[in-house]
Design goal:
elongated; single chain; 8 helices; two-stranded antiparallel sheet; Conserved hypothetical protein from pyrococcus furiosus pfu- 392566-001, ParB domain
Length: 200
């Protein structure tokens, strides 16, 4: 028999192997707030000790949504083995979605809000983008600051003649000459090991 009781009278099942990740949990909470009648149509299943066998996440989401009362159905006279079996079977999805029907009869944005893992329908994505404020995504973002630092490109040459030809071809003025390197931007004296370098 389905009955409504205070949420605090129910015990969560610490051995429930089914979890809902944060993003999906928040969607479940929102779904319950929008459609609390669903909980009566799909009550939480508890054993004789008021420990949840089915609906652990719905119970947690109901509390998060601020509901004080929840709908339950009590499963009496189940052995411990049958309780464990029920917990698993209650969470097994035997069927598969008919994606053609879903695509034609439901809005994918709503399905996503309801916590379903779905493909992204291009038309729905366009509709969502068009309905939003394009500036919202920039709220809280830092102002763009251009950097004056130039990109440094290091080119290694086999010999000085190749380096000179490269500099002439690209109109590069070599301004600093170190022990084993030439540079157009900064000296390499800070480097610890120049043994592997020839000309730059």
């Amino acid at each position: 028999m389905i009955e409504q009781i205070k949420s605090y009278k129910i015990k969560g099942n610490p051995n429930n192997p089914r979890i809902v990740k944060d993003s999906k949990f928040h969607k479940l909470v929102a779904s319950i707030k929008e459609f609390p009648e669903m909980l009566k149509l799909r009550p939480i299943v508890v054993d004789e000790n008021m420990t949840i066998l089915g609906g652990n996440m719905r119970w947690k989401a109901s509390k998060e949504a601020g509901l004080k009362d929840v709908w339950i159905i009590q499963a009496d006279n189940l052995t411990d083995a049958k309780k464990k079996e029920f917990i698993i079977k209650d969470n097994v999805n035997y069927g598969e979605w008919n994606w053609d029907i879903l695509a034609n009869e439901w809005n994918t944005a709503e399905l996503d809000d309801w916590g379903m893992d779905i493909w992204k329908n291009f038309d729905d994505m366009v509709q969502t983008v068009n309905a939003s404020n394009e500036n919202d995504e920039w709220v809280g973002m830092p102002e763009f600051e251009s950097k004056e630092d130039t990109l440094k490109l290091i080119v290694h040459f086999e010999n000085e003649q190749d380096r000179e030809e490269f500099a002439q071809k690209h109109n590069i003025e070599l301004t600093i000459k170190g022990k084993t390197t030439w540079s157009t931007t900064y000296p390499y004296s800070a480097r610890n090991d120049l043994s592997s370098l020839s000309y730059e």
